[in-house]
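Good morning,

Attaching, inline, the backbone tokens for the sequence recovery test we're adding to the shared suite. The designed sequence is right after.
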């Protein structure tokens, strides 16, 4: 049977695209074109540097570098599209706001079906609104976005994040009474991280918090908190291997950016880890069980200790499978 062909456009963040590609291959997709967006900018030569200097420092165009990146990425993608001699079955585009409208229209002419997934709140990148109607289906993981815009855009739909079926490490040693968090530095997270790390250390739990942050002033500001600031973010696979060593994972909501469940919730579900989160949305999901998920706030901190000491409850495998990438991609591509 002929494999289904797909064009995948995805941000570079945490090298997640590597495991998405492998997951697609595992279910008989052939990734014909992979285009990674939002890559670190590299000047192509001295003329690029000089041009950038003039626009930023003499012409005072503060966003010139961003526009340079945007234009270059679109040009590179169009070049690849022009080489296609056949119509592909699908295009999956994550963060379509990173592409020009003309580029999206060109993609649409090269595929049978084009779908988008915006893994941030829509209002964080408002340029996405003029792109939504181009797609056959446009998925959001923020349910408030879906409810707010479903009448304006008939092609918009809701779907959660997912877990990638990266096999567990059979040789991993799980630390007793251990909790971890891996993520990027966000100022809004720091009061919660401080409160939790102080409490859990006081209760003799082993806690590991790794935050990607290369700002020395920030590192100095939080030098008294038990946080491991790292200069380079872990790849997605390295992060998954790391969290398998811990009994429980931490999760923090970002209500100023979006209202949805993060990948951590689904990773905990797949790997059978407890999770401590301040996101109350999780209470409404079919995999929620109070033995497995603790929703904490300023008033119930001391309940965490009891939560971590009770046994987990096994979730119905059919419910777990529902949130797999395999099921996710089948749903979004219909």
């Amino acid at each position: 049977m002929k494999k289904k062909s797909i064009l995948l456009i995805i941000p570079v963040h945490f090298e997640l695209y590597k495991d998405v590609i492998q997951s697609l291959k595992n279910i008989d997709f052939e990734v014909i074109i992979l285009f990674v967006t939002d890559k670190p900018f590299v000047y192509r030569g001295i003329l690029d540097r000089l041009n950038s200097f003039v626009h930023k420092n003499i012409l005072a165009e503060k966003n010139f570098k961003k526009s340079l990146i945007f234009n270059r990425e679109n040009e590179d993608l169009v070049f690849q599209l022009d080489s296609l001699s056949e119509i592909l079955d699908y295009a999956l585009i994550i963060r379509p706001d990173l592409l020009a409208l003309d580029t999206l229209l060109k993609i649409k002419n090269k595929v049978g079906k084009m779908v988008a997934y915006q893994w941030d709140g829509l209002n964080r990148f408002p340029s996405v609104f003029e792109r939504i109607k181009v797609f056959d289906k446009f998925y959001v993981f923020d349910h408030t976005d879906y409810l707010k815009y479903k009448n304006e855009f008939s092609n918009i739909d809701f779907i959660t994040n997912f877990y990638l079926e990266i096999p567990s490490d059979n040789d991993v040693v799980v630390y007793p009474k251990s909790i971890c968090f891996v993520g990027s530095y966000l100022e809004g997270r720091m009061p919660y991280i401080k409160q939790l790390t102080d409490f859990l250390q006081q209760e003799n739990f082993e806690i590991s918090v790794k935050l990607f942050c290369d700002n020395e002033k920030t590192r100095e500001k939080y030098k008294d908190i038990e946080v491991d600031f790292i200069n380079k973010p872990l790849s997605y696979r390295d992060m998954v291997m790391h969290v398998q060593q811990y009994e429980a994972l931490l999760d923090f909501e970002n209500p100023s950016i979006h209202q949805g469940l993060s990948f951590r919730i689904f990773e905990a579900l797949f790997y059978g880890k407890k999770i401590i989160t301040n996101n109350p949305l999780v209470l409404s999901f079919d995999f929620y069980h109070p033995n497995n998920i603790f929703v904490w706030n300023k008033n119930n901190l001391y309940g965490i200790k009891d939560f971590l000491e009770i046994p987990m409850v096994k979730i119905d495998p059919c419910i777990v499978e529902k949130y797999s990438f395999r099921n996710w991609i089948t749903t979004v591509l219909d």
